[in-house]
Design a protein that fits this description.
- It is a single chain.
- The protein is an alpha/beta fold.
- The chain has two domains: about 240 residues, Spore Coat Polysaccharide Biosynthesis Protein SpsA, Chain A; about 140 residues, Sandwich (Jelly Rolls), CATH 2.60.120.260.
- About 25% of the residues lie in helices and about 30% in strands.
- The strands form four sheets. An eight-stranded mixed β-sheet has the order 1-4-3-2-5-8-7-9.
- α6 runs antiparallel to α8.
- The longest helix is centred in the N-terminal third of the chain and has 20 residues.
- The N and C termini lie far apart (about 50 Å).
């Protein structure tokens, strides 16, 4: 039973992760990202296997070399834990053998008291006990992962991932210069929350100190505030979507979706160095730089009138191979570009409001808020300096540009 990395750690609250150091190979400790999932079995619907499959299938072989997934089986029934562990082994044996997947569990004997707890929010005793146990579940999981990697990502056991989520997270963290405690890659609860691994022992203590005080997502909010990060850093669009319909508590139906999730398929393109400019009035700080490749957020503008434009100026000239531009979002479906086109520019020049190009030629039109063209290099092999999104007809709706994917011809 222990041969496929089911690690049973009883009554071991070592805040420095000594247990994991003794069990996990040195190779795992050098990885970039550990992903933690705490899982409770649901009688009517169980999503864990689909979640694990999504993590592995939405990552390339190169990305998987930098990931270790840790699943904490938090069922009170040890027989059920063993059955679930066997199902994971049968479905993902190759990932287990390669050290990419670890399964751990514990015993309630290692938990603080879950009875007679204070009812701070007039909840029923069962509800208080459930959320308090959940806090301890996460504390155990977080503590175990403290020495496995450079960063830690918290997920639930009923989510699916966007394609290439690892590279997007890595790129975002690499480019962020301001200090941070928590970055959120989902707008929901405790899905997609990223931490520095050196903060995990502190987070473990924090969850245990207030385990019987409030729900986990409230504690996670207070944790980054306690470390002087006033507001959570949120990446958009969300990289993880909640798929569960049945809650782990009393198997109640709980339909909760992240409106910002975008499950774009395939590659996310190349990241040529570029600057972005627009004469469209910006709404609430959603500036052009947020969607400019590699696109760590989105642009949102208002007063979309004919002749307005959004321009990408490349640092060095490129030969295009493929372009994908998406407007609108799952939550703001009407904020698309209804009538517009894309132009390719040459001869870069400086202007009063940044840079642009002297000569443009039309490359194609937007359809249903999208612009997608493949095999650009077969149409024109000329180098370009600019790419411009042009508004053709005035619209009453605002414009949200959520994704600009660019592929560059190599060689």
């Amino acid at each position: 039973f222990f041969n496929f990395a089911l690690l049973v750690l009883l009554s071991n609250w070592n805040y420095h992760g000594e247990a994991s150091k003794a069990i996990i190979s040195q190779d795992s400790a050098s990885r970039y990202l550990s992903i933690g999932i705490s899982s409770i079995h649901r009688k009517n619907k169980y999503y864990l296997m689909k979640t694990i499959e999504s993590i592995f299938s939405q990552s390339s072989p190169e990305e998987l070399r930098e990931i270790v997934l840790v699943v904490y089986l938090a069922n009170n029934d040890s027989t059920l834990n063993k059955q679930t562990a066997k199902a994971i082994k049968d479905g993902f044996s190759s990932h287990i053998d390669e050290g990419k997947l670890l399964v751990i569990c514990s015993s309630l004997s290692s938990y603080p008291s879950l009875r007679g707890l204070q009812r701070n929010f007039l909840d029923k005793d069962e509800s208080v006990q459930h959320r308090s146990k959940q806090n301890v579940d996460y504390a155990f999981l977080v503590n175990f992962c403290a020495s496995l990697s450079h960063y830690y990502l918290m997920l639930e056991d009923d989510v699916v991932c966007a394609n290439g989520f690892f590279s997007i997270i890595q790129q975002f963290i690499h480019e962020r210069m301001e200090p941070w405690t928590t970055v959120s890659f989902s707008t929901l609860g405790y899905i997609g929350k990223l931490y520095h691994n050196e903060d995990l022992p502190k987070l473990t203590r924090f969850l245990l100190l207030f385990y019987d005080t409030m729900p986990c997502d409230w504690l996670l909010e207070l944790f980054h505030q306690s470390k002087a990060q006033k507001a959570i850093v949120t990446f958009r669009p969300s990289l993880f979507q909640h798929i569960g319909r049945i809650s782990s508590f009393h198997n109640m139906e709980n339909i909760l979706k992240d409106p910002e999730f975008q499950e774009d398929t395939g590659d996310f393109g190349d990241f040529p160095a570029a600057s972005c400019y627009t004469d469209i009035p910006v709404f609430d700080g959603y500036v052009p730089e947020d969607v400019c490749p590699p696109g760590k957020g989105f642009f949102w503008g208002r007063n979309i009138t004919s002749g307005k434009s959004f321009t990408i100026v490349f640092e060095t000239p490129i030969v295009l191979q493929k372009i994908q531009i998406y407007t609108g979002s799952a939550e703001y479906k009407r904020d698309i570009l209804y009538s517009g086109y894309v132009e390719l520019g040459k001869v870069k020049i400086k202007g009063n409001d940044g840079a642009t190009c002297r000569i443009y030629r039309r490359a194609g039109n937007f359809r249903n808020g999208k612009f997608e063209v493949d095999n650009f290099d077969q149409i024109m092999e000329e180098q370009i300096h600019c790419l411009r999104i042009q508004v053709a007809v005035t619209q009453k709706e605002w414009l949200l540009i959520r994704k600009i994917n660019i592929w560059v011809k190599k060689g």
